[in-house]
Design brief:
Distance between the termini: 36 Å
Strand content: 5-15%
Radius of gyration: 20 Å
Shape: flat
Largest sheet: 2 strands, antiparallel
Structural class: alpha+beta
Helix content: 40-55%
């Protein structure tokens, strides 16, 4: 089993990156190195969390919840309609923000932090709505998108 660990500075350009970054903020190269770990002799415990791959800047952790609310299941149908309208409008504006971001990078050579934060907040909201709609959680996403 391999484990990936991050290095504090980029091996390509030498830029010092903050701890926890998987990719260099300057050149975009991977900061991860593979460390081979011995296989456990005992079977692993039940999977209580699902983690996304670590070779991408996105990290997703979903905890398993066995008890589920039956009333929430009925309320979910109405709320998903509202969440869908909000996510659709927000997604359209986030798409426009990406086009503006593209031109901003083309002209200035760097990203706009405000546009980047707006698009990231849309994807966080979209992930929360998706997990709620796919019955992975009973926790409702906020209508405003801000938590």
């Amino acid at each position: 089993m391999e484990r990936l660990i991050g290095l504090p500075s980029c091996s390509k350009c030498g830029t010092h990156n903050e701890e926890g970054y998987n990719f260099c903020v300057k050149c975009g190269s991977s900061l991860l190195t593979k460390v081979v770990q011995p296989q456990p002799t005992q079977p692993q415990e039940k999977y209580d969390k699902i983690r996304a791959t670590t070779d991408h800047p996105l990290k997703l952790t979903i905890g398993f919840q066995e008890p589920a609310s039956r009333l929430e299941l009925f309320v979910r149908l109405v709320l998903l309609f509202v969440y869908g309208i909000i996510a659709g409008i927000w997604g359209f504006v986030a798409g426009l923000a990406n086009v503006i971001q593209w031109f901003h990078i083309l002209i200035t050579g760097k990203r706009s932090l405000k546009l980047w934060n707006f698009v990231v907040s849309y994807f966080r909201y979209s992930a929360r709505v998706s997990s709620y709609s796919l019955l992975l959680t009973d926790k409702r996403p906020p209508i405003s998108g801000i938590e």
